[in-house]
Amino acid sequence: MVNKRIFTNCHMDGYGETHRCCSCEVAIFSSRAPDGDRINGDSAALFCMEGNAGVFVVADGMGGLSHADRASATVVRAIENALMENTAAPTFREAMLNGIEEANRRVRQLGAGSTLAAVEINDNTLRSYHIGDAAILVTGQRGRIKLQTISHSPVGYAVEAGFLDEEEAMHHEDRHLLLNMLGSSDMRIEIGPPIPLARRDTVLLASDGLFDNLHVAEIVDIIRKGPIGSAMEGLVRACRARMHTQDEDQPSKPDDLTLILLRRCP
């Protein structure tokens, strides 16, 4: 038995939805950019699998290319199809890789592009799958970062190498450039190592609309404590405020925003 929720081209009112999956409390939010009536190019999904397992996905169709919403929806549907063929597998690594490869083929046929942030949770263990600048962050209750993915971009790699700090990166003119995406002939899947999840650890999957507007320390301070629904509300409020700020010293980039927060139940 598999329970699933899929979100494509959403414009959620309020602060999203909450669910329970694989012994985790889960909150999901997705909305288009606040600067117009255009489509939301992001998609998201949660799959509650047999046993104490689940898969969570955020895909961000690239706004500079055509069919952004179709691209991200295609990614989610391809992963869904692959998972449905392997519902009883002890892990979902093979299904995830097959789904992502099929998604890449389909997105290329569209002439479009998408990024991806996905995690597989089996009991107390998390594994991440990452393409482009959609991001995954895992933090403990006290704010210690256990996992932070690196953006597959010149700016992301410059930060990792120490050539740019976070503040410089957030204001960099080339922040939007990517070196890796679905829809590319040389697409590369970055697979993280298995990470043990402690109780009250919090996992965040996000499109770049979050990390283009809030600093990592701000994000961690919001998500590490309090009910998961309240943490989601705090993130959405802070990000929306930053998207509208007139303060030139603060990052501000109106964009689609899609977030999944999940936390191990106590």
Describe this structure in words.
The protein is α+β, with helices and mostly antiparallel strands and 266 residues long. 29% of the residues lie in helices and 29% in strands. It is built from 7 helices and 13 strands. The strands form 2 sheets. Strands 1, 4, 5, 6, 7, 10 and 11 form a 7-stranded antiparallel sheet that branches. Helix 1 runs antiparallel to helix 2. The radius of gyration is 17 Å and the shape is globular. The protein starts with a strand and ends with a strand.
Task: Sum this structure up briefly.
This protein has 266 residues and is of the alpha+beta class. It has one domain: Phosphatase 2c, domain 1.
Taking pLDDT < 50 over at least 5 consecutive residues as the criterion, the unreliable ranges are none
The general outline is globular
Q: What is the domain tally?
A: 1
Mean pLDDT: 91
List keywords for this structure.
globular, six-stranded antiparallel beta sheet, 266 residues, single chain, seven-stranded antiparallel beta sheet
How are the SSEs placed, and which strands pair?
Layout: E1 3-8, E2 17-21, E3 24-31, E4 42-49, E5 53-61, H1 68-84, H2 93-110, E6 114-122, E7 125-131, E8 135-139, E9 145-148, H3 154-161, H4 166-170, E10 190-191, E11 195-196, E12 202-206, H5 208-211, H6 216-223, H7 228-243, E13 257-264
Antiparallel strand pairs: 1-4, 2-3, 3-13, 4-5, 5-6, 6-7, 7-10, 7-11, 8-9, 8-12, 12-13
Helix pairs in contact: 1-2
